[in-house]
Each structure stands twice: as structure tokens, then as C-alpha cells.
Amino acid sequence: MDKKIKLIAIILGALCLAALFTAFSYVNKYKAIIGDNQQLEKDKQDLRQENNSLAQKAASSQQEASRLKERYDGLKSENEHLTSERDDLQKRYDNLSEEKDKLIDKIQNALTKNAAGEEAGEKAPVVTGDQYWANVLKEKQNLELQLADLKDKLKNSELKMSELSGSKSDFELELQKVSKEK
What we know:
The protein is an all-alpha fold. It has 2 helices and no strands. The longest helix is centred in the middle third of the chain and has 119 residues.
């Protein structure tokens, strides 16, 4: 019987050791699963923070893009306005130049007629000489002032256009940059 009791004790001991080993392996697996779960929760929290940060960056980039778009549209409109103003000033300049040329031709024709009349011995109807030349000089002076004024306006418009073109290209680059960042 002693042998039977020893055998039962050895079998019970072996069963206890097997149960203890199984319980120990389950406890280790449970601890590993809890550790993995905690790491996943931490990663999940980090990803949420990163997602919120990226959402804020996207919103600010979107606002910046819309602000740049509005500014670009405003500059484009101003550029178009200045272009039309420049064209109008160019037309006025051309008209005044043409008028000036016509007046010069009239003066030259009057002088040649006056000279031809004097050679023929005829007296042409003369408005007082000083009065006539004073009017011619006044008209010439007025036309030159208008011409100088138009030239200044044209130069200012061209400067504004070049500045706007530079600004436009800068904003296009910024808009492309913001678009690429999205």
C-alpha cells in the first residue's frame, strides 16, 4: 500500500505542478495582454492628439489659402483696373499727340501762306501778330503740359502694374505652397 500511496502522491504532485504551471502561464499571458492593451491605449491617445493637431493645421492652411485667394482676386481686379486706366491714358496721349501734330501743321501752313502772301505783295488778313503768336504759344504750352501729365500718369500706371505683377507672382507662389502643404 505504501507504494500505492507514493504513486498517488507522485501523481497528485505531478498534477499540482501541471496545474501550477498552467496557472503561471495564464497569469503571464494575462500580464502580457494587459501590457499590450495599455500600450495600445497610449498609442491611441497619441494618434488622437496627432489627428487633432493635423486637423488644426489643415483648418489654418485652409483659412490661409482662402485669405490668399481673396487677396489674389483683389490684386487681379486692381491690375485689370490699372490696365484699363493705362489703355485710356495711352489713347488720350495718342489723341493729344495727333492734335499737337495737326496744330503744328496748321501753324506751318499759316506761316507758309503768310510768307507766300508777303512775297506776292498781298497783305493777308492779319490778326495782330503778337496776339496770334501769344495764342499759339499758350496752346502749345497747354498741350505740352497735358502731354507731360499723361506721360507721368502712364509711368505711374506702369510702375503700379509692375508692382502688382510682382505681388501677383508672389501670391501665386504662396498659393501653390499652401496647396502643396494640404
